[in-house]
Structure formats: C-alpha cells, structure tokens
Amino acid sequence: MEKKDFIVIGGGVSGLLSALALGKEGHDVLVLEKEEHLGGVCRSYRVEGYQVDTGPHIITRVAQGPLKHLIDNYFDIIPNFTPHGRYYVVLNNRVKPFPWNMRDWVSFDLLPQTDRMYLMKTLFSISYLFNKGEDLSKKSVADFIGNGLSQSTIRFLNCMSYFMTGAPMEKTPVERFIDSEHYKSQSRGVLDKIYNILMKEGAQDQVYPKGGVQSIITSIISSLPKKRVEIKTGDEVLRINHAEKTIESTGGEYRYNTLIYSGFASDLPKLTENNLPENYKHSLSRLNRINALTLWLGLNEKIFNREGSEIWVDSNPYTWVVPVSNYDPNLSPKGKQLVGFAFSLPHGFNENKERKRSLKSIYEINPKIEEKVDMIHYQMLIPEKAVWTIDTLFADVKTPMDSLYLVGTDTEGRSMGVTRASYSVKKLLSNLREDKVI
Ligand SMILES: Cc1cc2nc3c(=O)[nH]c(=O)nc-3n(C[C@H](O)[C@H](O)[C@H](O)COP(=O)(O)OP(=O)(O)OC[C@H]3O[C@@H](n4cnc5c(N)ncnc54)[C@H](O)[C@@H]3O)c2cc1C
C-alpha cells in the first residue's frame, strides 16, 4: 500500500493550495480528486465558443488578504488580475453606484431620504456596538430594521443579505456587513474609523482573474513542486479508516501520516463510517449549504458597458450581473459579450421553475438582451460549503482527531469564496505548525 506524509482529499482551490504550500515546504503530498478535472467550483470551460466560469467570480482582498500571502510565499506563476471596478445597484429601473460610505448614502436617491437617514443612524449604532465589543453574531439584519421603511428599502436590504450570505435578511447576521479585518487593521484611533465610515470607498482591492477563474488553478498547478506533489484525478475516496490511517478509494488503497479533507465537512461522518465523536458529528450536521443558479448569456453585441458589476434588486430572484468579457475579451468570440447572472434561490426551490423565472426576469428588466442572445448556459452549483447565517455553524480546520484536518469554505467564516478558502489554508498551516506536524 502506497504511503504519503500527507493525503489531501479534494482538488478544488482549498485542496490544491494546501498541497502547494506543503509541497513547497518539503513534504510529500498526494491529492485525490474524484472528478476527472481539478478546480472544484473554481473552474472554467468552453460552451459554444465562450469560456464560462463555474459562476461569476470576483476575488476579494487581493491587496493584503490571505490569497496574496499564499501567492507571495508559494506561487511561481502569478495569476493576472484585473480590477473589478464598481458595484452598481439597479433599483426601480434606475442605476447608482453602491453606497459604501455616508457621503454616498446622502446621494443614493434610489431609496427615500427618510429611509436613508434611518439606515445611516442604524449603521452608526451598529459600528458603535461592534467597537464596544458587543456580540452581533446572533442579531439579524431584520432585527435592526424599524417599521415604516419603504418596500424599495426592504427589497434592497433583503437583496444585499442574499448577496452576502445566500439567505434572507431574517437569517443574515448584521455582523456579516462589518469588515472586521478592516476594523482590526485600523489602529489609528476613532477619528480614522469615523473617516472610513464617512468617506472611504469600499471593495477597492477586488479583481477578476484574466483567463477566467481557471487561471488561478492553472497558476497553482504550475507552481507545484512535481517531485513532492502527486495528483490523481478520477479517484474518489470512499472510506477513511483513521484508526489505521488508511484510505480506500476507487483508485486503490493508501496510507498516510496526516489527512487533510477538503470535501463537504458534513460528509465526513459517512466517509469515516461514523467513527467520530458524537458531539462533533452533531456540530457537522448543522452546516448549511446553499445553491446558486448561474445563467450565462453570450450576446451578439456589447450591451453592458459599465466598469464593474451590477446588483439587480429589481430582478426576481435577485441577481448579480458580471460582464466577464469586459475584463478579458478572449472569453467571448470577437465583438460579442459574455455575461454571468448569479441568482439567489429561495428555500425549497424547483430548478426548472427557477431557470424559467430567472431568464424571464432578465428579459423584463432589459428587453434589449433577448434580441441579442447568442448562447444560454445554466449552472446549478454550491458556492460555499457553509453559509454564515444566524443559526448555522462552521466546522474548524482542527478536528477532535489527531492528524485529521479540514480545509475549505465550511471551516472558516471570514470573507467569501476563494478568499475564505485561502484563510482556511493559512489556518491549516498555522495549526500544523502548532501541532509540530510541520
Ligand atoms: C455561482 C458561484 C459564484 C461564486 N462567486 C465567487 C466570487 O465572486 N468570489 C469568490 O472568491 N468565490 C466565488 N465562488 C466560490 C468559490 O469558487 C468557492 O468557494 C471555492 O472555489 C471553494 O473551494 P474549495 O476547494 O473549498 O471547495 P470545492 O471547489 O468544492 O472543492 C472540493 C473538491 O473536493 C472534491 N471531493 C469531494 N469529496 C471527495 C471525495 N470523497 N474524494 C475525492 N474528491 C472529493 C470535489 O470534487 C471538489 O473538487 C463562487 C462559486 C459559485 C458556485
């Protein structure tokens, strides 16, 4: 039976980043991926002459976040990032840039003035409570909403809640809207904090990876030390016997010293034949996944001309619109445009119904699109393995078992997507160091 220092289950961005870091630090690693391709939900592929991603991706915190740290330390080939631009809000058939600060709120006249005054006051009291160290994790956005707000304002807040957590505002913790990393990094006192609330433009260090999200995976794979890291695709792990430190997979049997699991943490009890402590299994069962429907449209003509992406509050279901070929014209045939529409789905959705409703909603909001459609492609995917809502938990990178660690978007609450995955890998490395495994 083949034996490795480390076996990583899953060849998505979390698993591959873990393998890269460990390989670069001189350890032997085997990655087992059940699909024939690597990347998980961070992947690109071709459809009728267009290159679509697995959902529209804008990568956050690239200037000083966890991905930057991993790139600086372990990448030989660096992805080519291009700035995202601004977020625009489409509400009641009007468009305005997203209001990041008090100055923007004053002119954000998509919402009635009285509602904006109320929301500004609420924003101040929330940041005051947060600064005082109050626990806001169980307070929902809805808890802070007073009576008498207009329907437009309620829809706007609900849409933003879906955007941040995939859940409505009753389930979205208000803490999700506080950039705690930013707050922590601000040590220059209260005036600085007030300046940020009043004046600072948010989401400055967000980017689209040229060549599509696949280019992040390609950079990782190209940077892997070939002598240290082996990857097997089409090899699904079926059983983990952690007492014996062996794995049974569709490709064979393996032995490990340390196991890193990057699949759904909630699937772990099944794979380990319920060989985990009862309270741990119970906490894993509380992880909540969400589905997102993405509709990719290839357009015969460039219709979306703004620099950035759009949040359509008017759409039903709400959608986030990213014209990815604006960032990289090679993603669509010459003169055409590729646009991703990511929809937040209601609880207990019916996929066929949502597909029809989504397309209809796009055409209703901008009838010009229907005349220009050249390609339609649907994707139903799970963006985060655990959502940050008031009644769910995250697993941790560290497990109650020695030599068994988790990585991925259900092991870490900070940020979203690829950035969250990168936080989990940073945490893995520090846990492995603390435990003297590396
Ligand atoms: C619609 C959509 C929009 C998104 N937008 C953004 C965005 O704007 N910005 C952003 O940063 N992120 C975004 N993301 C999220 C981001 O892509 C993911 O959070 C990230 O890629 C998750 O990586 P992961 O490695 O943790 O998980 P995954 O990609 O799920 O990887 C897990 C891997 O493990 C494999 N696996 C599981 N079980 C086994 C087993 N038993 N044996 C072998 N292999 C196994 C799976 O096949 C998979 O390849 C979006 C995702 C979607 C779907």
Structural commentary:
The strands form 4 sheets. Strands 1, 2, 9, 10, 11, 12 and 18 form a 7-stranded mixed β-sheet that branches. Strands 7-6-14-15-16-13-17 form a 7-stranded mixed β-sheet, with helices on both faces. A two-stranded antiparallel sheet has the order 3-4. It folds into 3 domains: 2-42 and 211-287 and 387-434, FAD/NAD(P)-binding domain; 99-199, no CATH class; 292-381, Polyamine Oxidase, Chain A, domain 2 (Alpha-Beta Complex), CATH 3.90.660. The protein starts with a strand and ends with a helix. It is of the alpha/beta class. Helix 1 packs parallel to helix 13 (417-434) and helix 2 packs across helix 13 (417-434). The protein has helices spanning 13-24, 66-74, 102-107, 113-131, 151-165, 180-185, 190-199, 214-223, 268-271, 278-284, 351-365, 368-372, 417-434, and strands spanning 2-9, 29-32, 44-47, 50-53, 81-83, 86-91, 94-97, 207-209, 229-232, 237-241, 246-249, 252-261, 292-299, 308-312, 319-322, 337-344, 373-381, 404-406. Residues 9-15, 32-35, 40-42, 54-59, 236-237, 262-263, 292, 294, 342, 381, 383-384, 408-409, 416-419, 421 line the site of flavin-adenine dinucleotide. Flavin-adenine dinucleotide (FAD) is lined by residues 9-15, 32-35, 40-42, 54-59, 236-237, 262-263, 292, 294, 342, 381, 383-384, 408-409, 416-419, 421.
